[in-house]
Design goal:
Layout (H helix, E strand, L loop, with lengths): L2 E6 L4 H12 L4 E6 L13 E4 L8 E6 L3 H13 L3 E2 L2 E2 L4 E2 L4 E2 L4 E2 L4 E2 L4 E2 L4 E2 L4 E2 L4 E2 L4 E2 L4 E2 L4 E2 L4 E2 L4 E2 L4 E2 L4 E2 L4 E2 L8 E3 L4 E2 L4
Parallel strand pairs: 1-2, 1-4, 2-3, 4-5, 6-9, 7-10, 8-11, 9-12, 10-13, 11-14, 12-15, 13-16, 14-17, 15-18, 16-19, 17-20, 18-21, 19-22, 21-23
Antiparallel strand pairs: 23-24
The structure holds coenzyme A.
């Protein structure tokens, strides 16, 4: 298996989580590469590789461990343009249905549960203890925060953000780039680009 490089963004906090998950999952982690803006120079005990732009891509697979959907996508796009390949990181304490699919570059972290036929696309995050039930789709570069509960057949579109401990009832669509606030209970579709909060979740822009 080729080596795996952990790439930090922002504060490096999400990268710490992904790095430790990768080690526990048995990946050979070649090192940690920094990205701008904001990466710390080092990440736990991961060997520092310096700036990502200076890292060769041949013989490596990458996981872009930035919490920001926008930054994660931008860095992944620039790596893909250089011919890079990506690795999925699946923490060994995640419970993953045999019929679920997880694309390269996705992260499924400790305590997460993926039900039958759940699909996690490239660059998506399913964070600690999140439940993504049967037939859900988490599209590319979406972010499912810790403790979220998606009932069956929910579709989370690209770049959407579902905040800490939010719940979404079955069959709904969380639109492209939408934001669901922490603790929300979503009982209607969320439009692309909208931000909803509360119980039941309502658009923050609505009167
Ligand atoms: C929804 C969210 C993105 C809004 O952030 P924001 O645009 O900065 O909004 P503000 O803090 O200015 O709040 C706007 C209004 O919405 C309310 N609000 C914000 N977040 C809320 C939430 N999660 N639940 C209920 N109400 C909320 C605020 O009280 C405020 O109401 P007011 O105008 O009556 O005072 C943010 O509050 C949130 O919930 N983020 C999720 C964070 C998270 O899950 N992090 C996990 C990282 S792994």
């Amino acid at each position: 298996m080729p080596d795996l490089v952990i790439v930090a963004g922002g504060s490096g906090q999400h990268a710490s989580v992904v790095y430790e998950a990768a080690v526990l999952a048995g990946h050979h982690v070649a090192g940690y590469a920094t990205v701008e803006p904001g990466s710390p120079a080092t990440l736990l005990d991961c060997p520092p590789l310096g700036p990502l732009d200076a890292c060769p891509v041949e013989g490596m697979r990458f996981v872009v461990a930035c919490g920001s959907n926008t930054q994660r996508r931008a860095i992944s796009d620039s790596l893909a343009a250089r011919g890079a390949e990506f690795a999925a990181v699946i923490h060994p304490a995640a419970v993953v249905s045999p019929s679920a699919t997880i694309a390269p570059g996705a992260m499924v972290l400790a305590g997460a549960i993926l039900g039958p036929r759940a699909r996690i696309e490239a660059g998506a995050i399913v964070n600690h203890a999140a439940v993504v039930d049967h037939d859900c789709v988490v599209e590319a570069f979406a972010n499912i925060c810790p403790g979220v509960r998606l009932a069956g057949c929910v579709q989370v579109r690209e770049d959407a953000f579902v905040g800490l401990s939010a719940s979404v009832i079955q069959g709904l669509e969380i639109g492209h780039g939408a934001v669901v606030g922490a603790g929300a209970v979503v009982i209607r579709d969320v439009a692309a680009g909208a931000t909803v909060v509360g119980i039941p979740a309502r658009d923050v822009a609505a009167p």
